[in-house]
Specification:
mainly alpha, globular
Length: about 80
């Protein structure tokens, strides 16, 4: 079984992660830090680019509601 990844590095509680994902500032900052901690530097940088960050934030909300995790852009 694959190890579960903690989104937003604070907790693996889905409700708390959803609340953090709804707030744009926390979603951008925590998403950026989470991707850097996973070693995905390019994916982290893309999250803080203004227009790309907004689109990724919307997709993250959809993924957080449906799957309970953030969108893993460039997860290779």
């Amino acid at each position: 079984m694959a190890e579960a990844k903690k989104d937003y590095f604070i907790t693996d509680n889905r409700i708390v992660n959803l609340i953090l994902a709804i707030i744009p500032f926390t979603a951008w900052i925590f998403g950026f830090i989470t991707r850097f901690k996973e070693g995905k530097i390019v994916a982290g940088i893309i999250r803080v680019i203004p227009f790309c960050g907004f689109i990724i934030w919307i997709v993250d909300l959809i993924f957080m509601i449906t799957k309970g995790q953030i969108w893993r852009l460039l997860d290779c």
